Amino acid sequence: MSSVAHPKEGEAVDILVIGGGPAGATAALYAARAGRTCRVVDKGVASGALGMSHEIANFPGLTEPVPGVRVVELLRSQAAGYGADFVTDRVTTARFEGSRKAAYGVKGTYEGRSLIVATGAMGRSARLVGEEQLVGRGVSYCATCDGFFFRDRVVAVVGATDEAAEEALVVARLARRVHFLLPVESLRAPAELAAQVEANPAIEIHRSTVIEEIIGTERVEGLRIRSRGGAPIVLPVDGVFLYLQGARPIVDFLGGQADLSPEGCLLVDEYLQTTIPGVFAAGDVLCKHLKQAVIAAAEGAKAAVAADRYLSGHAKLRPDWS
């Protein structure tokens, strides 16, 4: 598989996948094995529900418990071996006009003739006290985008995923001090990345710490935080970068272009196609099943087969034996 050609940087692919968990990685595997060029855009190997899981013991083929992040790495490696391309980026918007489907990320623009949404269901529904009022005035969701504005300042990064870790390292090159607030005890990121964060002299890690309020009038002035078992304290900062997780389908980047259920889940037909022709969905964004990696993977396979048939001009899936 080492001689398999990967799509070139910047070129439009046959199947563009947003999200690289079990649904997205399996979709990429099936797309690549069908001879389709495929690119997967994802925030990070440990940014989804499977990657954040401590151990997985009920995924087919596992004879002993395996860290969730390792399962994701294996799925991606298998898909990449057949030619799928994986890009680390955060998609902010998407446009579905004409035959090309475009997704716009922090680092670049990605295009495909078809698209599979596999972004999972870890989006936030509730906001922190003070967050909404101070967005753009010290509250940010992208250190890569806004870190420059905090040069030589004191900031906080909040989260526990590899995305939060990567962004903490980015802003640590610019800020005077970075308070890394982990809502849990340990950083849920690959060991090498976690080691880089812990070794960075500009980063101070606060474990098992949550934000109760973002303080400020015209701009962020501080955070009211509480560590496990401790009393609330005020941490003076000039800005805060939020990478928190929730339990809602991550579909905000679609901008209302595809129909959703009242619960915010993507609506699809029996072939996993959304209300936009050529745009499919798989995994937890559908909210119609148990949240299990094996089910998300199966849906990823089905979505990739449906996208392949769509690109071939077939109106619907056909049984493989027909």
Major sheet description: 7 strands, mixed
Shape field = globular
Total beta strand runs: 15
Order of helix and strand elements from N to C terminus: EHEHHEEEEEHEHEHEEEEEEH
Number of helices: 7
Tell me about this structure.
It contains seven helices and 15 strands. It folds into two domains: 13-123 and 248-311, FAD/NAD(P)-binding domain, CATH 3.50.50; 132-243, FAD/NAD(P)-binding domain (3-Layer(bba) Sandwich), CATH 3.50.50.60. The strands form three sheets. Strands 1, 2, 3, 4, 5, 6 and 15 form a seven-stranded mixed sheet that branches. Strands 7-14-8-9-10 form a five-stranded parallel sheet. Strands 11-12-13 form a three-stranded antiparallel sheet, with no helix packed on it. It is an alpha/beta fold and 322 residues long. The longest helix has 19 residues, at 293-311. The two termini are 30 Å apart. It is globular and about 60 Å long. Helix content is 23%, strand content 25%. It has helices at residues 22-33, 49-52, 68-81, 143-146, 162-172, 191-199, 293-311; strands at residues 13-18, 38-42, 85-88, 91-97, 100-105, 109-117, 139-140, 154-159, 177-181, 203-206, 209-216, 220-227, 233-236, 239-243, 279-281.
List keywords for this structure.
5-stranded parallel β-sheet; 7 helices; FAD/NAD(P)-binding domain; 2 domains; 7-stranded mixed β-sheet; 15 strands; 322 residues
